[in-house]
C-alpha cells in the first residue's frame, strides 16, 4: 500500500509521542504525548506531499513551516523552517510508516 499524501498527525513508533511544533516562534519540533487538549490541536497536524524520487515534504498546517533539521549530522534537532526538506517515509508491512 503506497503512502497517500494528505493531512496527518505523526507519531514516533518507539515512544508513541506525536511531533509538535512549538508555539513560541522558535519553531522547535519535539515529541509530546498527545492529550487532545485544545492547545495541542493547532501544531500537531502536518501536510504530507510528494516531492519526487520517492520522497515527501512535511509541512506544519498551523505555521506553514516545513519539517527540517538544524544540521547535517546524526542527532541534529528537528525544526520548522521555510527551507523545503525531502524525507523518505518507509511503510511497514502492518501499514504504519
Basic shape:
globular
> Which class in CATH terms?
Mainly Beta
Number of domains: 1
Question: What portion of residues belong to β-strands?
Answer: 35-45%
Q: Which class best fits the helix and strand makeup? A: mainly beta
Order of helices and strands: EEEHEEEEE
Uncertain regions: pLDDT < 50 for 5+ in a row? none
Rg, please? 13 Å
- How many extended strands? 8
Task: Round the mean pLDDT to the nearest integer and report it.
Answer: 88
Share of residues in helices: under 10%
- Biggest sheet features: 4 strands, antiparallel
What does this structure look like?
- This protein is mainly β and 97 residues long.
- The protein has a single domain, classed as Trefoil (Acidic Fibroblast Growth Factor, subunit A) (Trefoil).
- 4% of the residues lie in helices and 38% in strands.
- The chain has 1 helix and 8 strands; from the N terminus they run E-E-E-H-E-E-E-E-E.
- It has one helix spanning 38-41; strands spanning 6-9, 18-21, 28-32, 45-52, 55-60, 66-69, 78-81, 87-88.
- The strands form 2 sheets. The protein has a 4-stranded antiparallel beta sheet with strand order 1-4-5-8, with no helix packed on it.
- A hairpin with an 8-residue loop joins strand 6 (66-69) and strand 7 (78-81).
- The protein is globular, with a radius of gyration of 13 Å.
- The N and C termini lie close together (11 Å).
- The mean pLDDT is 88.
- InterPro entries: Ricin_B-like_lectins, Ricin_B_lectin.
- Pfam families: RicinB_lectin_2.
- Residues 5-69 form the Ricin B lectin domain.
Amino acid at each position: 500500500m503506497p503512502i497517500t499524501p494528505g493531512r496527518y498527525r505523526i507519531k514516533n513508533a518507539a515512544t508513541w509521542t506525536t511531533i509538535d511544533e512549538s508555539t513560541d516562534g522558535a519553531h522547535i519540533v519535539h515529541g509530546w504525548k498527545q492529550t487532545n487538549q485544545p492547545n495541542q490541536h493547532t501544531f500537531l497536524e502536518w501536510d504530507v506531499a510528494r516531492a519526487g524520487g520517492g520522497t515527501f515534504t512535511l509541512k506544519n498546517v498551523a505555521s506553514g513551516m516545513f519539517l527540517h533539521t538544524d544540521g547535517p549530522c546524526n542527532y541534529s534537532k528537528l525544526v520548522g523552517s521555510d527551507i523545503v526538506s525531502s524525507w523518505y517515509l518507509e511503510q511497514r508491512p502492518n501499514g504504519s510508516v
